[in-house]
Design goal:
GO terms for molecular function: GTP binding; GTPase activity. InterPro entries: P-loop_NTPase, Rab, Small_GTP-bd, Small_GTPase. This protein is an alpha/beta fold and about 200 residues long. It is built from six helices and seven strands. A seven-stranded mixed beta sheet has the order 1-3-4-2-5-6-7, with helices on both faces.
Length: about 200
């Protein structure tokens, strides 16, 4: 199903009458982060507007896709949902090259998942050049131990975008993907979008 992303600017909005067009560009997002932070739940909420209380481990990585209209282009959104367990870390570098965004998810009720953000960012920087990194704090509906100001300050120091969501109650999930889509605007207009070749060590 083709999704039309809505923006406040007429320049950004692409009408549904383009829905018969074939995908012209690829938009790749890779999700990283510790286990049980809600990576899969965020993707499921965005794709299907569903949420499950039951936790299921991601083995290796799961691939999903969705098409949307943006700036009069049909974009094929590809999402890689990677496992957070250490035993799968060696597999992650194969998914990172040519990513338009890397999303690192942490649980605002779990300080360890927050402290590990820096390790994940270092891991990404060792695999690809100049990544666009979004750090996402999930589970904001619960009693949090990481407040917004602390997370925002750390991400500012690390040079990353910061966003907060609740996958469970569908708070700011759609907005997260809208913000990432907007970040493609300059790349599309410059002709660089979907043409990254940024792997530091090609596998």
């Amino acid at each position: 199903m083709l999704t039309t992303l809505h923006f406040t600017s007429h320049e950004d909005f692409a009408g549904a009458n383009n829905s018969e067009k074939k995908p012209e560009l690829d938009h790749k997002i890779v999700f990283l982060g510790n286990a049980k932070t809600g990576k899969t739940s965020i993707i499921s909420r965005f794709l299907h507007n569903t949420f499950s209380e039951e936790y299921a481990f991601t083995i290796g990585a799961a691939y999903t896709k969705k098409e949307y209209l943006y700036l009069n282009h049909v974009i094929r959104l590809s999402m890689w949902d990677t496992a957070g367990e250490e035993r799968y870390m060696s597999l992650i570098p194969m998914y990172l090259p040519n990513s338009d965004e890397v999303v690192i998810v942490f649980d605002v009720t779990n300080r360890k998942s927050f402290e590990d953000i820096e390790n994940w960012i270092s891991f990404v920087n060792s695999a690809i050049r100049d990544p666009m990194i979004f750090v996402v704090g999930n589970k904001i509906e619960e009693d949090r131990v990481i407040n917004f100001d602390e997370a925002h300050q750390k991400c500012s120091e690390l040079g990353c975008f910061y966003f907060e969501v609740s996958a469970k109650f569908n708070v700011h999930v759609q907005e997260l993907f809208l913000v990432m889509a907007k970040k493609t605007k300059t790349s599309i207009k410059s002709g660089k979008f979907g043409k990254r070749d940024d792997a530091i060590n090609q596998m």
